[in-house]
Amino acid sequence: MSMRMRLWVMAAGILGTAALFVLACGELPGFGGTWHPYGDRAVHAALARHTANTIASVNFDQRALDTLGEESILFGSVLGTVVLLRQTRDEKRLPPEPARVAPPVSRYALIALPVTLLIGLYVIAHGQLSPGGGFQGGVVVATSLHLLYIAIDYRALERIRPVGLYGVADAAGEAGYLLIGAAALVTGAAFLTNFLPYGTFNTLSSGGTVPLLNASIGVEVSAGIVVLLARFLDQAVEIVSGRDDEAEDET
Asked: Which of 30, 37, 73, 82 is the most buried (most CB within 10 A)?
C-alpha cells in the first residue's frame, strides 16, 4: 500500500470516528441535569442485586468481563517483568548490606504496618458495601508489607516475602476470577453472570458473586505488586553483574 493510500485510509477512519463521536455527544444528557439514563440503570441493577456500592456492581457484575481484562493487564505486566528481569547466567546475587534506619522512622513504620494491612483487608472485604475494593485494597496490602523494608532493612522484607509463593498467589487470583466466571456457565447462564444468592442488602454476604470476584482481584493485585516490586528491588539492591566484577579484577 502506497503512502498516499495509507493517508486516505487514516483520514477516512478519523472522519468516521469524529462523525460517530458527534452523534454520540448529541444524545448526552445536559450538564447538571436530572436525566442520567446510564446512572439510573446502573443504580437500579445494583439495588436489584443487593450491592450497596453501585461502582462495585458495575465493575464486578454489569461489566465484569471488562474488569477481567483490566486484571489480566496487571497479570501480564507481572509475568513480563519476571521474565525480563530474571537472573541471568552472567549475574550473581549478593546479600544486601544491613542498613541503619533512624529510630523514629523505624518506630512509626512498624506501628503503621499492621494498621495499613488491616485497612487494606477491610477495603477488600467491604468493596461491595463502601468505596474501595480489590484494586484499591490490594495496593494498600502490598504497601503495608514494604513498610518493613522502611522500618528495618531489605533482609527483613525478604523473610516475609517469598516471591515464589506470591507468584502463585498472583496466578491464583487470576484463575479464581476465571473459575467464578466459568461456574456461571455450569448453571446455564452467561460467563461471569451473577448466579449466587444475592444475600441481605448492606451486609458482607450481599451481592452474590461480587464479593468473591472482589476478593480474587484483591489477591491478584496485592500479590502482583509484591512480585513487581521484588523484581525491581532485586535489580537495585541485590544483583551485581559478573562482567563488572571481572572488569574490576582486571583493573
From this structure: 82
In terms of C-beta density within 10 A (0-12 exposed, 13-18 middle, 19 or more buried), how is residue 119 classed? middle
User: With contact defined as beta carbons under 8 Å apart, do 80 and 74 qualify?
Assistant: no
Cell of 65: 468481563
Please, which residues have CB within 8 angstroms of residue 190's CB and are 6 or more apart in sequence? 184
Residue 220 backbone class (left: φ over 0; alpha: ψ -120 to 50; beta: rest): alpha
Q: What is the pTM of this model?
A: 0.81
Residues 133 and 214 sit within 8 Å (Cβ to Cβ) = yes
Residues 6+ positions from 24 with CB-CB distance below 8 Å: none
- 151: its cell numbers: 522500618
Give the whole-angstrom CA distance, residue 215 versus residue 222. 11
